[in-house]
Automatic annotation (TrEMBL):
<dbReference type="GO" id="GO:0022857">
    <property type="term" value="F:transmembrane transporter activity"/>
</dbReference>
<keyword id="KW-0812">Transmembrane</keyword>
<dbReference type="InterPro" id="IPR020846">
    <property type="entry name" value="MFS_dom"/>
</dbReference>
<feature type="domain" description="Major facilitator superfamily (MFS) profile">
    <location>
        <begin position="205"/>
        <end position="392"/>
    </location>
</feature>
<feature type="transmembrane region" description="Helical">
    <location>
        <begin position="105"/>
        <end position="123"/>
    </location>
</feature>
<feature type="transmembrane region" description="Helical">
    <location>
        <begin position="296"/>
        <end position="318"/>
    </location>
</feature>
<feature type="transmembrane region" description="Helical">
    <location>
        <begin position="164"/>
        <end position="186"/>
    </location>
</feature>
<feature type="transmembrane region" description="Helical">
    <location>
        <begin position="135"/>
        <end position="158"/>
    </location>
</feature>
<dbReference type="InterPro" id="IPR036259">
    <property type="entry name" value="MFS_trans_sf"/>
</dbReference>
<feature type="transmembrane region" description="Helical">
    <location>
        <begin position="271"/>
        <end position="290"/>
    </location>
</feature>
<feature type="transmembrane region" description="Helical">
    <location>
        <begin position="81"/>
        <end position="99"/>
    </location>
</feature>
<keyword id="KW-1133">Transmembrane helix</keyword>
<keyword id="KW-0813">Transport</keyword>
<feature type="transmembrane region" description="Helical">
    <location>
        <begin position="330"/>
        <end position="352"/>
    </location>
</feature>
<dbReference type="InterPro" id="IPR011701">
    <property type="entry name" value="MFS"/>
</dbReference>
<keyword id="KW-0472">Membrane</keyword>
<protein>
    <submittedName>
        <fullName>Transporter</fullName>
    </submittedName>
</protein>
Amino acid sequence: MDQKTGKFHDLFGNGRAIIYGIALLVGTSMGVINPLSTTHMTTNHGGGIWIGVISSSYFFFMALGSVFVDRTMRGSSVKTVITAGLLLTAVCSALFPLFTANAVWLLLMSLMGIGISCNMVGLQTALHNLSNEKSLGMVSGIYSLCYALGLIASAAVAPQVYGYVTWLPFAFSSLCLVLASGIIHFKLADVLVIPERAREKVLSKITLPLFGAFVYGFSETIVVSLYPLYLIREHVAVSQTGYGLSIFAVGSIIGLLPLTYLADRIGRKRCLALCVFISIFAVLGIVTAASMSLKLLLSFAAGFMIGPLYPLSMAFAVQDLSAGERSSGNALFTTFYGFGSAAGPFFSSVAMNIWGNGHIFTASLLLFCLFLTYMAMTRKDSKVRITKEEIL
């Protein structure tokens, strides 16, 4: 009984449950902002190129914002960093449906990317510094699960509300962020401080998990932004195109906890390799399957394996870092995730235009293979270093 209580405390105690609640609220807000911003721009006759640039600017400035947080907010309270970012995003979200100018949309989406980067770096740093190293995988998995549940629920409901009252979903998104800010200010007991810059270079310690963050961001945004388009071009009825994305999301949610639990048992690096390896076959199957039912089954498998890449890479990135290095690690992690998310749809759309619709995942497959190759090379290098140390 004491062991079960101790395990529960490792996962939910010491302020972690509050952080999960904040992740749920932020995910709910993002489920409105990301898809409905595109809908709003399309409805108001935004140019196709402008819509692509504005949507990508969110992820691009998320990446740049993470670098800004890491370099300029050393010694600041984590509460201050997160709250400032969430309130900035809340204001921009409320203002977004009130304008119809491309330049204003671009500014607001860029500021929202910066605001969310403050939340991601600060909240993930707080979560990891409050967590036991042995349970980092599960803790990261629960955090990602709460975020995903909020995102999927609001993404399903918000478009229906938008059809009746344009500004209401964006106002609800802002309310979620304001509530999250209030919870952080009043309920997060430990006042954590972002430490001064670590003397040792963090980047060289976590190149592999950063590659994993880039791969996840790259692949996930391809599915979200281009998978429905791929199905339409494959002559799937428009009413059924949402099924592929929904099944992928369900697979992602279901896969989070089992695979992060497995990672805490067999090793996060090994589990990361397993997920990427199986993802190759699932993604290949999607583009080669002849029937829609088989595509949906493989979409579930792809989601089950690709979805956990985010928490696995995040836990892997910070597991060997000291408390003073984890804010830099999380900032770099968010930066690589942001750049991957911005790059994925661009390179995949180029591949589809040049080589055909079936190459939607070609760039992702290339990255999966490069990731496994790099992992094998770093493993050999580590063995060589160990052998040299033993000889000396």
